[in-house]
Design a protein that fits this description.
- There is one protein chain.
- By secondary structure, the protein is α+β, with helices and mostly antiparallel strands.
- The chain has a single domain, classed as HPr-like (Histidine-containing Protein, Chain: A), CATH 3.30.1340.
- Helix content is 34%, strand content 26%.
- Helix 1 packs antiparallel against helix 3.
- It is globular and about 35 Å long.
- It starts with a strand and ends in a 7-residue tail after the last helix.
- This is HPr domain-containing protein.
- Keywords: Cytoplasm, Phosphotransferase system.
- One of its GO terms (biological process) is phosphoenolpyruvate-dependent sugar phosphotransferase system.
Amino acid sequence: MIDTTIDVINKLGLHARASGKLIEVTTKFRSSIQIGKGDKLVDAKNIMSLLMLGAGKGTTLRLVIDGADEEKALEEIQTLFAAKFYEAE
């Protein structure tokens, strides 16, 4: 099990388009992927749950991944966040 944090660095935060891109990544994996603030974690494969987080720029999110492909899932999620969800700034 991986339990780490990730920072939201894109200008608009985890809004609808960014959440959709995150869903595209998370749903490729069999591992359980949860994201949230502190102990309030939500399913990172559920768009409504992600939108309800209200994670704006500068938010540090907790990321918990558990499963056979957890390392690859973490790598792809970190890449997506680092690329600022491939949005034009």
